[in-house]
Design brief:
The structure holds two protein chains of two kinds. By secondary structure, chain A is mainly α. Helix content of chain A is about 75%, strand content about 0%. The chains are: A mainly alpha, B mainly alpha. The interface between A and B is large, with 39 and 48 residues.
Chain lengths: ~80, ~210
Amino acid sequence: MKWQYIVLAALLIGAVAFSLWMATHIGMNDIEHRLTNTSEGEQEQGGFHVEEGVNIPMYLGIVGALVAIGVGIYVYKSRRQ
Amino acid sequence: MAHIHLPDGTFSLQWVIVWWALALALLAIALVASRRQIITVQRLSVAGLLTAASFAIFQVELPFAGGVHMNFTPLIGILAGPALGSLIVFIVNILSATIGHGGWGMIGANTLVNASEVISAYYLFTFATRRFELFTRGAIAAFGGLLVGNVLSVLIIMISGIQGSTLRGTELFMYLLQIPILNLFIAAIEAIVTGFVVEYLGKVRKDLIGG
């Protein structure tokens, strides 16, 4: 067997072993719950403990930015024609 | 693999705007770069197929450590190149957000994360591992690219901070560090799958490889 395959196998096996060891201690859901200060029950109910009401200005900001980009492209293209 | 699954409202508005602005700047560069290339019908078809395949694999939750998924972003980089690949991951992230996989506000950050996987995998495949065989090149490019994406996703969350969270500084970093370690398992699987796909394509359609 070529040495490159041995090195690759060692790298991937090492990565899998490290990852499995970590998975015996914690899961993705635990991390996400801890990051957002929620329990599993709260997450199912959609009750995140993040600042409420922030979504509306965020959505407006995204829509505003996309509209501004669209207008910018339209103006740029119409000037070039 | 690397994909920020935190809900809308986790990042403050200014950070959502920052990541969106950076993502749009990256997409503008990708558009300019792709206009300088010759985009054949074959490349467009491959890009479309990669978009569909990546979107599909995004939604398949693997039962490991509470649920993870593959991305195929390194494969996108290898087959479509960095310019088209960045556009593909942007579309995949929009489509994923429409079905509730990742928040709308996270599209900017996730596009940057996935584009970093695409770009680093492309350059790893093209330059850094040129002397190896196709399987090894594909696997190393995929594994390396996914590591880059994971590190970037941790950095983005660290920089942005999490609204309402009591975790700060080192404690937050230690929590976030566990995500890339858990993702190593899927990175290894994705590396092997990518290696086999690239090796097979190298045998039957070598012209498809290399963007």
